[in-house]
Write a structure and sequence with these properties.
Elements: E1 8-18, H1 21-32, E2 38-41, E3 45-46, E4 51-52, H2 55-60, E5 67-77, E6 83-93, E7 100-108, H3 112-131, H4 141-151, E8 154-165, E9 172-182
Parallel strand pairs: 1-4, 2-5
Antiparallel strand pairs: 1-9, 3-7, 5-9, 6-7, 6-8
Helix pairs in contact: 3-4
């Protein structure tokens, strides 16, 4: 069996609007640049030593029809003006021989900053629990973030968020955000 541990990842996002829900999803994938892929959703592990590349470089590494693994946030509405967000967050350990975590989150009614902060906190919380970083889950996001930094075990968090408002004419609006893995 082939080794399916990704060596590279990139982040992308997009919005699509259409009278058909499935077509709005296709258009969102097109804006994200990953519509030509056969997408397989995977869970939350960021492989050790995985390299993050810019979106443009990552897109050139994809092949039409290829099986493409990604952590995908996807949300849709046909309600006019309804605010929604799809986000993907990443927490990377300081010791890159250890794996990190990627989380996805979809929500209605929150800003891009709120969604980004939330999804980064999700990823960091999952990573912290595997690294033995003690914190109170009832503390505020900012208090936990300081604990993550002070522990010296979580070196970086990042996220990508796509927000959108429902189409004024009631057509389906879909937002996607993705961490796209490249298997070399």
């Amino acid at each position: 069996m082939a080794n399916l541990v990704p060596k590279t990842v990139f982040f992308t996002r997009g919005v699509g609007i259409h009278r058909e829900k499935l077509q709005s999803f296709e258009l969102a994938l097109r804006k994200a640049g990953i519509e030509k892929c056969n997408i397989v959703r995977v869970s939350s592990i960021f492989p050790p030593h995985c390299k993050i590349v810019p979106r443009g470089k990552g897109l050139t590494m994809l092949h039409p029809g290829g099986i493409t693994y990604c952590v995908l946030g996807r949300i849709a509405t046909d309600e006019p003006y309804r605010l929604m967000s799809a986000s993907v967050g990443l927490a990377i350990p300081s010791n890159r021989v250890h794996y990190g975590y990627i989380s996805e989150h979809e929500a209605f009614g929150i800003s891009a900053k709120e969604a980004s902060d939330y999804v980064e906190d999700l990823a960091a919380t999952m990573l912290a629990s595997t690294l033995g970083v003690d914190f109170d889950p009832n503390e505020s996001y900012d208090e936990r973030r300081e604990i993550y930094r002070m522990s010296g075990k979580i070196v970086e968090t990042k996220s990508i968020t796509q927000t959108a408002k429902g189409d004024p004419e009631g057509r389906w609006t879909t937002a996607v955000a993705a961490a796209v893995f490249i298997i070399e």
